[in-house]
Amino acid sequence: MTNPGQSKIRDLFGKLTIKEPYRKTRWLSLRFRAYVDLLRPFTLLPPLIISMFIIVASIIYYNKPLPDNWLITVVHASGTIAIVNAASNTLNQATDVAADKISKPHRPIPLGIVKVDEAQSLAYILYLFALLRSATINPWFGFFIFMIMVFTVTYSLPPRMKQYLFINQVWIAIPRGMLGILASWSVFGDNPLDATPLIIGSIATVFLIGGMATKDISDAEADRRTGTRTLINTYGRRKAALMCFPFMFFPFIFIAMFLDNGLDPYLWPLIFVVILTFPVIYLMIRSKESQTLENVPAWSIMYVQYMIFAMGFALLTIFSNELPL
Question: What is the pTM of this model?
Answer without folding.
Answer: 0.93
